[in-house]
Amino acid sequence: MMKFTTRAAVAAVAAALAGSVFAWNEGGGEQDEALHLVGDPENGRDVYEVCAACHLPEGWGLSDGTFPQLAGQHPKVAIKQLADIRALNRDNPTMYPFALPSQIGGPQAIADVVAYMAKLPMTPENGVGPGDDLEHGQKLYEENCVRCHGANGEGDNDKFYPRVHGQHYNYVVRQFREIKGGQRRNANPEMVEQVKNFTERDVLAVSDYTSRIRPPKELTAESADWKNPDFE
Fold first, then answer.
1. Is the pLDDT of residue 74 over 70?
2. Angle between helices 134-144 and 200-211 (to 10 degrees)
3. Among 40, 121, 168, 207, which residue's CB has the most CB atoms within a 10 Å radius?
4. Would you say 84 and 90 are in contact if contact means Cβ atoms under 8 Å apart?
5. 134-219 belongs to which CATH class?
6. What is the pLDDT averaged over residues 203-223?
7. Where are the domains of the chain?
8. Percentage of the chain with pLDDT > 90?
9. Phi/psi-derived region of residue 72, left when phi > 0, alpha when psi is between -120 and 50, beta in every other case
10. pTM here?
11. For the domain with range 21-124, which CATH number is right: 3.40.50.720, 1.10.760.10, 3.30.240.20, 1.20.81.30?
12. Distances from the Cα of 37 to the Cαs of 13, 30, 107, 108, 194, in angstroms?
């Protein structure tokens, strides 16, 4: 029954998204509500159980790019993305059924789970690219990405720019392709404009370089063997 319900929900979301439009970071709704709440990481741990099935208990996602690393992400960034998915402003039919209020709760639950994820240490061994075009990738990153995401990929919480250091190569590639192709409808229009003329070589090279930017040691786990004690 659950399998049927999930499939039906995914199909319904895909149909709803077909003719929808959205502008960057308009705010309002659950996003504004959650942003004005104090997150409780203790409750966020309970909410995160729903997320852990795909993003792993550690919040590290998968190197194949299916699920991104969430650990250590800026709270405002994560709140925006969750709220956008729930409001059908970001196309993610796979995640949508599991992000619903009926599954994880309302705006307070969003604030709580985001506070919990922000405290998780990032993986010290995220998935990286082939490493065969890094000079080109670095040039593209410095010319196009530094202004928003920072020289070390640290992003900006207040401006809703995500951390990109330590993110999986395959996930970064997928986001570039979806932004170029128009599937990431909630993407920052400045980024859409910057990458619209990127070639496939450009996408692969800058994604590879980005995936190799290391987060500060204080944000990463001591070992790739670290296990989240909250789920042992």
1. yes
2. 90
3. 207
4. yes
5. mainly alpha
6. 98
7. 21-124, 134-219
8. 87
9. left
10. 0.89
11. 1.10.760.10
12. 28, 11, 8, 7, 34
